[in-house]
User: Fold these one by one.
Assistant:
Number 1:
Amino acid sequence: MEKMTSPYKWGMVIDLDRCTGCGACVVACQAENNVGICDKKEISEGRGMHWLRIERFWVGEYPDVRVRFLPVMCQHCHDAPCEPVCPVYASYHNPDGLNGQVYNRCVGTRYCGNNCPYAVRVFNFYPHQWPEPLDSQLSPDITVRTRGVMEKCSFCIQRIRRAKEEAKEERRLVRDGEVQPACAQTCPSEAMTFGNLADPRSRVARLSRSPRRFQLLENLGTHPSVYYLKGGGREHV
Amino acid sequence: MSEKQFHESNELKVSGEFNETHRTQRTLQTPKTLQTNKINDDLLSSLRPPTLRWYLLALLLGAVVAWGLAAFTWQLTHGMYVTGKNRPVMWGFYITGFVFWVGLSHSGTMVSSILRLSMANWRRPILRAAEAMTVFCITVAGMFPLIHLGRNWTFFYMIPYPNQRGLWPNFRSALLWDMTAITVYIIGSSLFLYLGLLPDLAVARERSSGWRRKMYAFLAMGWRGTAHEWSVYHRASTLMAALIIPVAVSVHSIVAWDFAVTVVPGWHSTIFPPYFVIGAILSGVAAVITLMIVIRKAFHLEEYLTPLHFDNMGKLLLVISLLWTYAYFVEVQTTWYAHEPIEWEVFSFMSGTYTTQLLIMLLSNSLLPIVCLCFRRLRRSIGVMLVLSLLVNVGMFIERFLIIVPSLSHKNMPFVWGSYSPSWVEISVNLAALAGFVLLFTLFAKFFPIVAVSDVRELEARRGRVTMGRAGVPSIAEED
């Protein structure tokens, strides 16, 4: 069998000092990835479909209150708890180090969702509709998921594929900064950096070596591909 | 004498015996055959044509099952949102039901095979009911994982069938282990039940007519009761009893691994497999006791299921209840002592939010059985045993729920903590599962001897009286 090696190991660095919690990434992700449109009821029931959420924390007591924001999407773990538990290989590890999700294969046991410590997997509880004119906005690059299927952030795999194909035609590797997911592209304060962690000179690799870096729930040994840079916590309300 | 001749002569003897039986039935000559006939009559009484009461019961149960099917259809056509599940609580009442029914299924085979291997003679009248219960419980349990799928119609993706795309299920997933274990258990326990049923089917064949006779004749596979057949039968049932125990233990260990192999706080615990097996036997033994009481009442088997049987089962329940208490204590104690923040959060959320349920569980699984079952008078009281055995299973259902739901509600990321309450669909399906189980059991009791006739008769045949000097001692002959 051909050994599955890849020159890429996609990763992201999120600088919490830069994040303003504006939510542009959440909207961009929804628009890019055909994510279902949920109403108030669905969200309040805990059945929202965001692939990316901004966690907001209040720190301290009044009047010395600070707010902290933490954008959380699929961490694309290298030892992902969601992958081995899927009975049908719907969640799998791809050679680029991404956690893939095959919607057609998913039977909806929701075991992956339970076992994801970051709780970033969302399940299509409802059959989702795209009322006009939003239906014209659906991206042809991505499957529209039916109800009963698990889905999650893919690091905009369709963009990565396109960039890789273009690079292959020109017989080169994808250049640093050539591809970025919708959230990173949209972030007004440029808090998110995306790139190839396998290339030590890439921007994302350099930032991931910062002394401010940390990962979510590092103690679980999931080895996420997303690094966070600690914020200073100066954000007074 | 050649083997063939030997069999023929045996056959003659057997048919002669049957003729004799038929004759004595009319003339009522010897007390011995009279007793045999009485046993046959008593124990096969469940096969008599159903009464109006039976039809009413079946109708009621059928209605509940139909309601559950309607609820499931509703879920199938609308989507999983009709359940109470959400993010992060993606498993709820269905999986609770699944674990509960797998637990119940343990009783039967475990109780019956352990008692068979340890040659406990009081087991004989309850064997069949316990074994049948196992088969029906595991069948009901096996449906829950399929009901709970987001896309139920693609369930066959989980079966390893050859296909053009070369897709294979993921054997690293605990759910696949589950499927494998449950399939093995369904097949194994059905065989176990069928094997024990063989001689009784032959008895039923001799005593029935019409389509029933045809059915029994087909199912009895030409059983004649020759010495050779009996010896093979005894060897096979001992072997099956020994083989089914590891299967039963593995099934519930695997169900426990569904939880234990994850990284969910409160689930990820090494004690889960033995703890689940103990819990399974606890609910199983309790269910067998409930069943004994119901059968005793329904088929008037007071002579065969005596307070002595309840006394023995009570002792068994007491031991298992002590074991369960120990396992639960160990699990909670390590959580409490380590005080690991996330684990402790799950535990405090569970004990804070579900205090009533927790107390009911502790009371009915541990405190009440341990206190009550210490007294022989209470063990021999049918009423007390009925209440206790029902309570244990209520407690066990709560236990499964308290393991599954609180852990998911308060996982590692506090921002997505949630809560869960079952919807009417989930409750209906769970009720239908219960009704379906009882319905299957009632039907089984109408079509097959629910008390092991040949086992009871074997015991009667072995029973004797030994005189030592002037004292007479009741004795039971055993083969070496």
Number 2:
Amino acid sequence: MPDPTAAPPPALRLHRVAKSFGAVTAVSDVSLTLHPGRVHALAGENGAGKSTLVRMLAGVHRPDRGTLELDGHPTVLRDPAAARAAGIAVIHQEPTLFPDLSIAENLYLSRQPTGRLGRIDRRALRAATTAQLARLGVTLDPDRPARGLSIADQQLVEIARALSLDARIFVMDEPTAALSGTEAARLAAVVRGLCDRGAAVLFISHRFEEIFGLAHDITVLRDGRHVSTDPADRLTPDTVVRRMVGRDVGALYPKTPTTPGDTVLEVTGLTRHGAFHDISFSVRRGEILALAGLVGAGRSEVVRAVFGVDRYDAGTVTVAGRPLPAGSPAAAMAAGLALVPEDRRQQGLVLQLSVERNTALTRLRRLARHGLLTTRRERADALHWTERLRVRHGGTHTPAGTLSGGNQQKIVLAKWLATEPAVLILDEPTRGIDIGTKAEVHRMMSELAARGLAIVMVSSELPEVLGMADRILVLHEGRATATLPGPGATAETVMAAATGHPGGAA
Amino acid sequence: MTRAHPRELGVLAALLLLIAGTAAANPRFLSAQSVRDLLLSAAILTVLAAGQTVVVLTRNIDLSVGSVLGLAAFGTADLLATHPGTPLPLAALAGITIGALCGALNGALISYGGVPALVITLGTLYVLRGAAHSWAAGRQINAADLPRPFLDLGTATVLGIPLLALLATAVVLAVALWLHSYRSGRELYAIGSEPAAAARAGVPAGRRIRTAFLLSGSLAGLAGVLYAARYGTVDATAGQGMELQVVAAVVVGGVAIFGGSGSVTGAALGALLLTCIGSSLAVLRVDPFWQQAVVGALILAAIGLDRLLTTRLAARAARTAPEVSRAG
Amino acid sequence: MPAEPPSGRGAAVLRRWDSALIATLLLVTLAAALAVDGFATGRNAQFLLLDAVAIGLVALPVTLIVVTGEIDLSVASTLGLCSAVMGQLWVSGWPLELVVLTAVALGALLGAVNGLFVTGFGLPALAVTIGTLAAYRGLAFVVLGDRAVADFPRAWTDAVGGTALAGAVPAAMLVTAVAAAGCAVLLHATPLGRSLFAIGNNAEAARFSGIAVARTKFWLFVSCGAVSGLAGVFWTLRYASARADNGQGLELAVVAAVLLGGVSIFGGRGTLAGVCAGVLLLVTLRNALQLADVPADTLDIVTGSLLILSVLAPRALTALRRTPTTRT
């Protein structure tokens, strides 16, 4: 096709797009341009609007305002099929493949090469798959079922599938979050290869060394708004962090120093085959211990096993000197443990049930009188706690699912603080919530620690780990690689241990 | 497909073991007549199992097949009894059409209503049986009422093999070919394996599920025609309770109850195994009342075994790839 | 997924469903009283209520199970097996008190088997209880064959069919009503009831809140078995006949009544009042049609259609009120 202009138009251009869900504004006034052959990184804290942008490009959400242009032509992505037809491929953190089908069929479902009488030509199918995988520089048996493939391999299958569909724009939503170092490096090579072939890539990651190693341009988002777009070589990780956070980091992490008391929680030699191995730590009253590491390092699995939601194969958990029976959340709760889980919507709350039913869920017996529970009692209790945590809601009888992410998280905190725990375990306590609530949650953590609670926090956000923790336990591929004192730790020492190179740290 | 083989071989091995054991206890079990009877009885169950396989692969279930068989059997017999001049292919087509209509109804209710197949087909199980009863109004059609050539179909043999068994084999081969070698057939596996991914890949799930139920209904209709030809005596209770045997055959044959894996040959072997168990119980003079209990026990054993194997596989995968064992 | 359930709609829909159901029940009763000879008599009312006892009793634990998102299709077979064992033990000369206790205990045991397969081995309740539906019914035939045991003492059979409150209500219905009231309190005003709704909506979140999900479900299956056993005792004494096929097909009526009562087949939603109205509506309809000389076999059309309608109607209602959203 002849093109009158000299410079090729951008592969994709988002112009001043906005998207709201009910009263919540997810994205407002964001512009973004992707060029062929360039990697564009998108940086921002959780809740900054990255996922909403990804869903727009995937055809899942349609922007309320603003335009989308492909090769200079305004386009509306009506549904995921339209996005795919437009050459946009979205690679997720954990791809959804067909576990029962072979790799070849995952690549070519509904498009298998056919021979006589419309029969699938299996030999051609295999050859095409091998060729497609070879373009990415990987060898996988095309006949192998997708079940049991590592996440890294699943992503490659997904990318190969997109390539076979002639995708020119790759949107990668935290693709390396669950990968090991070598796997991430292999993916980076694949991404460079895609660019060399003229693809435009939007790359989302929390790892700065990856962003700066791969990206040509970096856009920073904050609170759903566009902050800046610059060539990568004009930025430093520090400037990006400052723009992401957008305020004095100290205000966000109001950690007050405390003097730790007695040891409350002691974990020794905890092991679950295939998840984590020989993990030991202890937490004292008034202390905040952070479990740091990459996603998939086994941190959530450890705290889940401690709380009894998951089983473990070896090791002991003692609370205030008493051994805790394995595999019983009820026993853990009775001993004074509380777990605010990682996935608020699946594990933290029953979204369909009302706020008052959710807050009561951890104390059903205690709230009952003569074995009977009344809505009145639940409501009074829920009002008490929602006021105390300043939850904004449309009445405690409304389903928890109607609240914003930050307020949902406060409900989860409320239902656990109401159990009056001695040890509070927080798994990604500020994931996906707005920056204001985030600061509130941090302040609350500080206060609770000051009042003598022992706190264990799992977090993937380095500033949060560095800003809040008294001590940091770093995990790498299921093993503890370092224990660092909170005040002395730096992003570099934590990341080194998290990627399996604890250089010099004790 | 490659992974399904061990499972099918397992069923085959169980089948051979059963035959060998029963034959050792009573050699008459392997007489030509006895084998012919066995194949005849298995034929109808096999045709039903082929249709059920297609439905179960998509993560659905069709509990109404016994009632569809009854309705089609009675309809065909009634047509031939009241209009003895009807050409046999036309009569067979009528039976199959009754089945197809029932299947289309199931499929439409399930895919457009977005409700579980279990509930819908449990409902149509009774509705269609009730319809058969109200049609028959207590009548029974006997062999004497039916044209001789039609009844001959039920006993005819080709090279000593019953015609019905050959027909059932042809059905199984055709369905197997479709499931294995055609895009739409593979899409059934995709839908059952991971519905979300199927939707993302643009698989027309609703249409495929409707097709699956249409096929299951049509094959149940065909089974009804075969039933009328084989037994000659048909009333409104024909095929009552047969859905349990069909589900058992499919599950025993290695089709995962949650869809996505299994093969129609496995289901056919399951049907054969189930029929064989029935005959061996008779040959070994075991109380025939045991048969239904055995069907139930086989369903439980089969799903239990499948679960055991999957957890084993998952555990092995977790051991070999520790870094990807995220539970959440 | 941004699509949240809008504020309080679930509860409002449920309330509206309950009132619509009760209005329908009154309308059907009124219409039957006017149009059907012999419906509005004290004698028929007694019969009607006695007919509602078995369905009503079994519907109570099935409601609790469906609220947690599981299902038990084996209730009727449990009833049949308990009835058969009851007959066999009575014939063998056991005292009837002990026979009754054994039957109920056996029911609990059969329920425990279901519970073990579902919660212990993690198998889908649907598949498990289809298996035990076949297995328990088969065992009932193994125990009693096609015999019937009828010589139960008059004192017992009269007591079961007798009346209470100055002859106004059948005693058995009174017991059922009290049980229903107890169940309503359990489901709607106790910690256990709250846990059941939490489990049905999101079992994982319930587990993370310290609720023993597996144990709760296990005991629900046990109590469902025990109540089915009790219903078997009632059935046997009411008809003074222990038979292996007692209560065959009752699972349909029970599931239909529960779903008709507004309990969501996906779990997490429903009221016990709705289920009671569902049971009465079903029984009243069948009773009126029977009096209007509709043959019993044809009545299954009504029950089956009600079942289908009860799952389709809520879907249709929500679809009408909400613009369709893409489901993933």
